[in-house]
Amino acid sequence: MKVILSTLNAKYIHTSLAIRCLKAYSEKDFDIELAEYTIKDPVMNIVSDLYQRGADVIGFSCYIWNIEETIKVINILKRVMPEVKIILGGPEVSYDVEHWMNRLPNVDFIVVGEGEETFHQLLQEIEGKQKYHFVYGLAYRKGEEVIVMPGRPKADLNELPSPYRFPEDVPDLGKRVVYFETSRGCPFNCQFCLSSIEVGVRYFDIERTKADILYLIENGAKLIKFVDRTFNIKRDYALEMFEFLIQNHGGCVFQFEITADIMRPEVLDYLAENAPPGVFRFEIGVQSTNDPTNELVKRRQNFTKLSRTVSKIKASGKIDQHLDLIAGLPLEDYDTFRKTFNDVFALGPEELQLGFLKMLRGTGLRLDADKYNYTYMDQAPYEILGSDVLPFSDIVRLKRLEDVLEKYWNAHRMDHTLKYLMEQEFPSPFDFFQAFGDYWEGQGWQKIGHQLEDLFTRLRSFLEQRGTKQMDLILGLMKLDYFLGHKYKPRKIWWDFTMEKSDWASYIKRLAEHPEDVSPEFAKLSLSERDLQKHAVLEVLPFHLERVLAGVTPEDAKGQTLLVTIYQQNEDQKPVYFTLPLGAVAKLI
Q: Where is the B12-binding domain (predicted)?
């Protein structure tokens, strides 16, 4: 019997952990292949590939982001392969199981919850006597009737074989995100999250975990994303794992979900002192800073302690942080969410993701939806359309904010410019992103694509339209950000270059002959005139750049600056900029 385990990933770079766990457990007894696609792949291409593989059984791992596309694939598969057995599993179909069996007549079985043992026993029954009533954790059909068996006890994790050592995965390890679990379960009870349903946390043996990670690193893995719901719930375990990864990272990057307000000071101190820059990334779910909201959804959170953790990690300069917010939680209206957004943005995360509440099947909040007058999408991802305190009109506005937040802040295309705007020109970060998002949609830009240059010209258009002061200064910061956004010397710019050729040549000559006028660091580059012509861009800014970046008022930054940006002069191939004060300002320094 040939079995194919498949999933539709969000992107090609992601590997599915769930189907690898099933294969690892059952491959000793069955011929199992993995088949991964993306939700962007044409349905007929997926069906054609699965058809040509000629399986007897095809299983699909289902999530809110792939269920509807998966259903399209299943319905066509059953038309062209009527004898094939279709099995579904995963969090999206593990709740309201009868609903799924009734909605999807082409599905033969659903594996509910943790799947290794259930899936293996199901394959044995398909190949054998087909006594499915012996299989706990299974939903199946008996004529027209849907039978849902009782759940299966949780597996002993240390009896499960490793899903990380398939030889066929090795060639692509360096090109894909490797998902890795050191534990299962969550200690918290947040009512909007599926993880709250599984009580308690179970761990894989730490020595086995270390051995699997070493195997992945030695075979070329570049990014390992830990899927543990709270990686740092056990202080000693987390500290031992952090130590191990620091000692053995080999250039691999590791991403974790942590709960920041329970991070112990000694762990923070260890990371601040020992973590190599860029090797760790932390994802922190803040969701809301509104205490009544957090209390209602049973989310324990001490924002003061969380802030202290985030600030200390940021101060170390070694670990990027991704903070999450959820718009639409109970009691969180537009104004309180504005405060939540500004509270979290003030922490300066490298990324701030604004998500919208999803009424996931099986969660307490979905069961209580009527209490808060929630309306939401009938099909996945079940995103809310409104509540008693957040009408659809406010959700639409927040969607506009989210759009420009992703394009500008999270993409880090204009860090210097945005920092100035949010500190000097707008009441708060929220107000900047909201006003810009409203303008963006008003121009119809959400309907068309954009190049990098468009992002700069569109921001300039927005700022000019509202009569923003100090546009010369803001445009100068935008030029700096534009130069720093290129790996190689840019071939074009989005503004009119006004420097005379003779002035440009004079500056190049001065920089080559007197690099010490700029800085000792610039002098160490030992760049000739030819080097500068090839690798440098120059721009005269009508203000003192370093003073503006230090946070002084425009009045105290009068003068001119020669901005010199150099490319291809360091190992990481990142541009570096230098400044040379000009005119009267130069005499004052």
A: 1-133
